[in-house]
From TrEMBL:
<protein>
    <submittedName>
        <fullName>YlxR family protein</fullName>
    </submittedName>
</protein>
<feature type="compositionally biased region" description="Basic and acidic residues">
    <location>
        <begin position="97"/>
        <end position="115"/>
    </location>
</feature>
<dbReference type="InterPro" id="IPR037465">
    <property type="entry name" value="YlxR"/>
</dbReference>
<dbReference type="InterPro" id="IPR035931">
    <property type="entry name" value="YlxR-like_sf"/>
</dbReference>
<dbReference type="InterPro" id="IPR007393">
    <property type="entry name" value="YlxR_dom"/>
</dbReference>
<feature type="region of interest" description="Disordered">
    <location>
        <begin position="94"/>
        <end position="115"/>
    </location>
</feature>
<dbReference type="Pfam" id="PF04296">
    <property type="entry name" value="YlxR"/>
</dbReference>
<feature type="domain" description="YlxR">
    <location>
        <begin position="13"/>
        <end position="85"/>
    </location>
</feature>
Amino acid sequence: MPAARAQKAPWVRTCVGCRKRAPASELLRVVAEMDPAGGRFWLVPDPTRSRPGRGAHLHPDPACLALAQRRRAFGRALRLSSVPDAGAVVEWLESARAPRPDSGEKDRTIDMSTR
């Protein structure tokens, strides 16, 4: 009789802000990009986890972002020589938390009859 396959556990990552462990699916991956002209770094949100390079993980919560910035955790996690600009991550978090216009699907009744 073949052995039952063990179900894979989800990838667990640590939030660079609050330092709590969570499944990677609950965290936002952030990567650093460098300005070729000035040598400055900025953080880029990677919600699809498809960008190349070293990534740091963060709860999609402004409090965790503030903790990570105060602790200068992105520079260490991403092995950067300077403090990166987190403007794009702030914008992404604000847009993700912004109230979306209600589509009205909750109150809409769908007629499933065949007539």
